[in-house]
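RESIDUES AND SHAPES:
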Amino acid sequence: CFSPPLPGLPAHFGKMSSATGGGDGAAKIDMDLYSRQIGTFGLETMGKLVQMKVLISGLRGLGVETAKNLILAGPAAVALHDDELVEMRDLGSNFYLQEADVGSRTRAEASMTQLAQLNPYVSVSVLSGPISEEVLAGFSVAVFFGKSEAELIRLNELCRSRSPQVGFIAADCLGLGGCAFVDYGDAFAVRDKDGEEPRSAIVAGITQENPGTVHTHHERRHGFQDGDWVTFREVQGMSELNGSAPRQIRVTGPYSFTIEDTTGYSAYVREGIVSQVKVPSAMKFNSYKQALVQPKPEGGEDLPVPDLAKFGRSEQLHIAVQAVQRYREVNGQLPPIRDVAAAEACVQLAREINDARKAQEGALSVDEVEADVVTKVALFSRCMICPMAAFLGGIVAQEVVKFTGKYTPLHQCLYFDMFELLPSELPSDWQPLGGRYDDQVTIFGRAFQERIQSMKLFLVGAGALGCEYLKCFAMMGACCGPSGMVTVTDMDRIEISNLNRQFLFRQGDVGHPKSSTAARAAKAMNSALQIKAMEVRVGVDTEDTYDDEFWNTQDVIVNALDNVQARLYVDSRCVWFAKPLLESGTLGTKANVQVVLPFLTQSYGDSQDPPEESIPLCTLKHFPHAIEHTIEWSRDLFEQLFVESPREVNSFLVDPKAYLAKLPSEGSGTSQLAKMTIIQRMLAQRGGPFDMCVKFAVMEFQDKFHDSIAQLLHTFPLDHKTSEGALFWSGPKRPPTPLMFSAEDELHVEFVTACANLYAANLGLPRNADRAAIAAIAGGVQIARFQPKEVKIKVDDKDTTAEGCIDDEARAKQTIAELSEMSKSLPSNQPVEPAEFEKDDDTNFHVAFIAAAANLRARNYKIPEADFHKVKMTAGKIIPAIATTTAMVTGLVGCELLKVATLSSRKVEDFKNAFVNLALPLWVMSEPLPPMKTTSKDYDPVIMGPIIARPEGFTTWDKIDVDIGDATIQQLVQYLAKKHQVEVSIISQGSLCLYNAYSTASKKRLSGKVTQVWEEISKQTLSPNRTYLTLEVSATDLEEGAEVALPAIRYSYRPVGVSPNSRAPRPDEGHDAQPGPRPSRGRCPRLCPRRA
C-alpha cells in the first residue's frame, strides 16, 4: 500500500531528535526542517504526527491542497485515491497537473510525483479501486472530497466500525460555497484545546472561605479564564495547595479567581506561584448520518458563523448542500452548470428536506428556505476555484493534525460561502471553452477572466505567503495574459527551515534566491504566467528602482512580508499612489487579512496593536521570576561576551592611545574596568591553548551563577526589609541560590563546552566538542573563594542609584595605565572575531550557550527550566509558522483579489477583513473599517486648544497638490497663505525639519529653494527621476489664529518628464491646490508590534 520514504536523504538535511508520540515509541524528527512547525505544535504533537497514516480520497483542487499541506506537516504516510481521469478544467485548481495528463492519467497518479517531493520523510502512495473496510485498516484518518451523500454515510460507518476508530473528515467545494465535517468518535481526547502557552502568576493572598479567593500580584493580570485548571507551588502557610492535583477555577477579576472551599486549610502566610495546566477533555462526535439531521452534537455549540454579516447563513447552507446531494442521488450527477431548471429542482428539494426536519424532533430546520442560497450552490456545484480550495484545504489539513489531540477539532460542521463574488447580472460570455479556467469563466464570464489575466500586480515577499500567492495567481490566471505581469521581490535566500511550509522550494534550492526560484516554480504550474523576479528590498533607499512610474502602473499590491516596518512602508506607498493593498499575516494557527482600498477603508498604518510587554531591566539583571526572563538575560550575555567584547578589543587595536584617552568619559568606573579587563584578557590569550578557553568558561560560570548571586544576597540578605517594613524578597523578587560548579553536572558541562568554544572562535582557535575532555579540564580549574564587595544595586527601574563597586574608580585609573604600557609592545594588531548570532545552526554553540545559561540562571532562582527548542524559539525571536494557516489565509486573500478586479463596480461591504484561529477553531470576517477622518474640534487635548481641519473630514488618502515649480520656502509659505488662509510655522519632510518660524537660524532658509534646503539638511542629492517632495506643515488660521490641520502636501518642483535644467513655471503661474489622494502623513514609520 505504501511506498518507502525517498532514498538518499542528504546527511546535512537536518538535525534529528527523538520525540515520544505514543504507539511504537520514539519517532525521529528533523529539527531543522520542522523548527517553525515545532514552535507551533510542540515536540509531543510532532511525535504523534510523524506516526500517523492518512488517506486522502478526491484530488481536485481541494484534495491536492489538503495533501500538500499535510505532507509538509510530516505524517508517516499519505495515500492518494482518485480514479477519475484528469480533465482540462482540473488544471485551474490542481497545481500539480499538466495538459499532458488530461484524459490519460488519473488525478491521483498525475499528482503523486510532485506531492512526494514535498517532504522526503513522508511515504506517498496511490490507491485505486473502491474503498472498503480492509483498505481503511491501518489509517489514522481518512479524508473524503466530492463524494455523494450515500457514499459518505457508508464510509463514515466503516471508519466508526474500526477499532480504534479511523478519524473521518468530509469536505467539498461547490463553486463559491464550501463545507467540512469532522467525526473523531464518541470519546475523543483533546490534550490542549487552544495551543497557548500555559500562564502563571504570583500569589499575593488566599482567603479562608467557601469558595476561597486567590489574589495575584498586581504586576500584571493573571490572564486565566473560567474553567482553566491550575496548580500551586511554593505557597507558605496554606501548604495544602502545594503539589496537589490540578483544580478548576472561576475568574472573578483580572487579579483574582476562586477555587474550592478553603475554610479547612491552614492560613495563607506569603509567596506562591499558580500555574495553568492543560487537562485533557473528552469530546463526543455524532456520525455523518446523525449530523445531516442535527449538525449540533451533544454538548456542542451552534454552527459557526464565519462571516458576521451572514447570521443564519450556515443553517441555510446546511439545507442547501443536502438538497444538491439529493439531486445528485436522483439524477446520478450534480446539477449542470448554470442550469436554471436544475437549480429550481434543488430549491424544491431543499423545501421538502426542511419541511421533513420541522416534523422531526431534535432536527435542525429553518423558518423558510432561502431560494437564493440554494440556487447559488446548485448553479456552480461542479466548479472548483483555487481560492476556495486553498481556504478549505488549509482548514481540513489542520483538522487532520488535530487527531493528535492538539487543539480543538471542528465540532462538527463548517459552512462557508463567498457569494458576494458573483456578478450582479448574468454574464453573457459564461460558456466554457474547454480551457483550464473554465470553472472560473462559468462563474464570472470571459471578460472578467481577461481582466484578471491582464492585471499588473506587485507581490512583496516570496516566503511562505509569497509561494502560496504565486500558486494562486497561476491557478486563477492572474497576470497570465500578454499584457499582465506579476513582479515579485524578496532579498532572502532559501534555508532548510523554509522547506516545511514554502512549498515551491526543494532541497536542491537551498542557498538560491527565493524570488527567482519561486517564480520559476510558479511558471511551471502555468506557463502563461507573466512574472518578473527581483531581489531588491522595498524601502526609502530603493525609490529609484520602485519609482513613480512603477507604482502608477500597478493594479494591486499584495504584501507577503514578515516585519512591521516594511509593511508600513508599502502601505504608505499604496496610500500615496491610491493603490489597493491586500495585507495578511500568520502566527502559528492564527492569521489575519486586511483589505486596503483607496478612499474606502483604513490603511494598514491607520491602526496599531498595543505594544508588547517589555521586561523591566532590573527584573532581567537581578530579579527574574519566569523562564522568559532568564532566556532574555542569556541572550544579552551572549552579546556581551562574544559580540560586544571582541568589538571592544578591535576598537582598542585600531588606536590604543585614542581609545584610552576617551575611555574615562564613558560610563562609570565599573563599566570602564570591565571593558579594560576584557581587552587585557583577550589580547593575552589570543594564542591559546584551548584549555585557557575552558578556564575562561569556568570562571564565567563562577562569576555569573555563583559570585554575582552571592553578592546580591550579601547586599540584600534573606531577612532584608524595605523602608516600609516589608520583606524585600517577596512577590516577584525571588531569593536566589548560588550554584557551585561541578564537572559531574551535565548542565554545567554544557555551559562550559558552549562558552569555551564560542570564546575559542573569537580568538581564532580550533573548536573542541569533546565534552568528556572539556569536563576533565574544567574539573581541574582552581576557583578563588568569593569575597563580597560593597556595591550599589538598583531595586527597580525607578531607582536612580548608580550601580557599581565603590572601589572601581581607582582601579579603572590604574588599569588605564597598565593598558597604555601593554599597547606599546603588542605582538600583533590582528583583530579578534566577533560572533554573529545564528539561530538555525545548532552546531555553532550559539543557542546551546543561551539554553545552558538560561537554565542555570533558572536554577539560581528556582524557576522551571526550558527545553532547547523553547530557548531557540524565544532567543531567536522565531515566529511559529505552519503550512495549513498559510494556505488558508492566502485563499481568503485570493477571493479578495477577485473582488479588486471589479473594484469600480463594488461596494465596500463586499470586501472582508478576517481574523482566524485554526486551533479553536474560529473565523471572524467583517467589513473593512472606513478611513479615519480628521475633523475640527473646539478643544484638542494635545494642543490644548481648538483645531480646524481643512478640508473638513479629510483622511489619510487625501493630499494637497502644490505645483508652483522650484520655489523658495518664502514663496511656498506665501502660496499656502493665499490659497489656504494659513500662516505656516513649520515645514517638514519626513523626519527633516525644513523650516521653523520659531527658529532664528531656520528663518534664514526662507530665501532658499525648497529643494536646495532639503539637500543641505539631508546631505543627499535629489534623484533626477524625482519630481516632488511630500511635505507636512504646521500652521494656524490667518483670521482666528487657531491651529489648522492640513493633509500632506505633494510639492511638485518639476513637471514629470522635464529635466532638472529645464525651466519650471514661476510661482505665480501655479494653480489652486486640489484635495486628492494623499500619502500617510510623512511621519517616520511607527515601529509597533503587529500581526506576524
